[in-house]
Amino acid sequence: MTRSAAVTGATGFLGSRLCDRLAAEGWDVRALSRPTSDRSGIDHQGDLEWVVGDVFDRQALGDLVDGADVVFHLAGIGLWSADPATVEQVNREGTRNVLEVCRDSDVGRVVFTSTAGTLRATDGDLADETDVAEPIGAYQRSKATAERLVDAYAEADGDAVTVHPTSIFGPGDEGFTMQLLAMGLEPTMPATLPGGASIVGVDDVVAGLLAAADHGTCGEHYLLGGENLTYDEAAARIADYVGGTAAPIQVPAAAIRAAGPVAEGVSAVTGQQVFPFTRGMADLATKRLFYTSRKAHEELGYEYQPLEAHVPDALEWYRSQ
Ligand SMILES: NC(=O)c1ccc[n+]([C@@H]2O[C@H](COP(=O)([O-])OP(=O)(O)OC[C@H]3O[C@@H](n4cnc5c(N)ncnc54)[C@H](OP(=O)(O)O)[C@@H]3O)[C@@H](O)[C@H]2O)c1
């Protein structure tokens, strides 16, 4: 029997890859696109039906989700693209709207994409789903509140699970992926960063989203991570893979931490977020943010590939830019 999916965030880095996979597996896919969304490059997805609107448009959301077996709610925004108030609105109120519309419609399971950023180990170990952290900045705060809304939806009579991807690597991502590739590939790139991350390939996250839809337990949270690597290690592994040399010098952690107070000071004077760094966020950027995906592995059958498995696709895209 053909299954149906509704996807928010379908025009984004992760969402477009999810839609590709759903379409390839024969799902009926309805996908949300803002009137301003750039859909060039993702229109090849066969029978995908676009619903135009945003997460504040309940009519469009109703049209999107009604009758869907699975609602993948991925739409979200970070501090690089929007001011903190917009980030809170889209991530928190957008999720509230999606859930309210789902509650009033005929839908199966909601799979909510949060972030590993709402989880953090206190003792320098690997964080798991129990390590719920005090949010730092509007992005984490909005995602943490959205998670509580999803939990409440599941505790009432809704069916919902939450996934927490770590740092996603793959073609089409002009943020993290582009920076990491530049650190590994560009001889002119002056420096790498201190700290590290759990780096997960975009296709592994897509597989995790599908596994959460099929095998997740209602109300549960699942980390979808990859290899835990310092940025130095990741840059060196990419350089090795392509036979190059990774960026030689590391930006001192103190310099990155110093950016926090500067940005806070400028924001305080101008009333505008000049760049998305507060003291807390700057400090976080220097840390090793490592995670375990054991729960997803045991309960969903989730697997992740090493970084090198994801480099060829990402590299082809990077070189085409
Ligand atoms: N990338 C990562 O490393 C990472 C890690 C953890 C969690 N996540 C989460 O995963 C999700 C997808 O991330 P991504 O990297 O694919 O982000 P992305 O490329 O920036 O895509 C974001 C998507 O959300 C849509 N969107 C933004 N504001 C919206 C609004 N008001 N109404 C409707 N749609 C809106 C965007 O539409 P437009 O195309 O019109 O802008 C786009 O489709 C996000 O929730 C993000 O927080 C990402």
UniProtKB/TrEMBL annotation:
It holds the Pfam family Epimerase. GO terms for cellular component: cytoplasm. InterPro entries: Epimerase_deHydtase (IPR001509), NAD(P)-bd_dom_sf (IPR036291), NAD(P)-dependent_oxidoreduct (IPR051783). GO terms for molecular function: aldehyde dehydrogenase (NAD+) activity. Residues 6-225 form the NAD-dependent epimerase/dehydratase domain. PANTHER family: NAD(P)-BINDING DOMAIN-CONTAINING PROTEIN-RELATED (PTHR48079:SF6), PROTEIN YEEZ (PTHR48079). This is Epimerase.
